[in-house]
TrEMBL record:
InterPro entries: HTH-type_LysR_regulators, LysR_HTH_N, LysR_subst-bd, WH-like_DNA-bd_sf, WH_DNA-bd_sf. Belongs to the LysR transcriptional regulatory family. Residues 1-58 form the HTH lysR-type domain. Transmembrane segments: none annotated. This is HTH-type transcriptional regulator YwbI. It comes from the Bacteria. It holds the Pfam family HTH_1. Coiled coil: none annotated. It comes from Paenibacillus aceti. The gene is ywbI. Keywords: DNA-binding, Transcription, Transcription regulation. Signal peptide: none annotated.
Amino acid sequence: MDIRQMQYLVEVARHQSFTKAADALFITQPTISKTIKSLEEELGVVLFNRNGKRIELTDAGQIIVSQAQQIVASFQNLTAELDDLRNLKRGHIRIGLPPMVGANFFPKVIGQFHERYPEITIQLFEDGAKKVEYDVANGSLDVGVVVLPATQEGLTVFPFVEEKLNLVVHPSHVLAGREEVNLKELAEDSFVLFREDFTLHDRIIAECAKVGFQPHVIYESSQWDLISEMVAVGLGITLLPETICREIDQRRVRIIGLTQPVIPWHLGIVWREDRYLSFSAREWIRFAKRVLVQ
């Protein structure tokens, strides 16, 4: 028994007529009669008593129709829900955002997306870029924003920001009057950095090692505003992306260009193309691409 046969059976029972059921289903009367006959032979029972033009369900027919009605209704609900998803009326998206990225780039994207698709819910997970990348790779998140290059295999990447890190120091720092500073000149300073689950943590330490020193890290945080505040009260120095530097109160700190080396800060949206991605998640990616490149 398949869903088509059950649909035919339910309609014949509802109309108590093969002809009326055929009209309702937009098929021929011989087609529906043949289908019901085939179903009776398959099940080994008689479904309808035929008295001239009048038909009525047998006991077996009543049992089967009762179950078939529930199955047909469930199938129709399933089809309707899938149509809603295809038409982007409903859905749910799990998005991973590093804290310093979300506030600066995505309120606009999420706000406009919600305005267009109010029935699609978005669940945000704020974690460091390394954790976000790992969770997208293992399927815990549908899509995420990471610091490039991505290290997990199997990720599709859409880059949307290309910036670099700047040095942030207290106004009384010996380098505060400079326009540019080489990284190796910071060997004797105390650093305030993001936590270890942030890509910038490992990248800054690796770049310091390349120029010959291990940075003295006195504090780690997940919040860029706390990091900048610690610099503002003279506890240490830090390296922050250009976008973040534009948000800092520059009356309390000095922002200096970092050279030799320039440390890039490139961001990208990542997802797994080789796994199922919902209609709503695919639309969010498409929508975000369009908004972010404006």
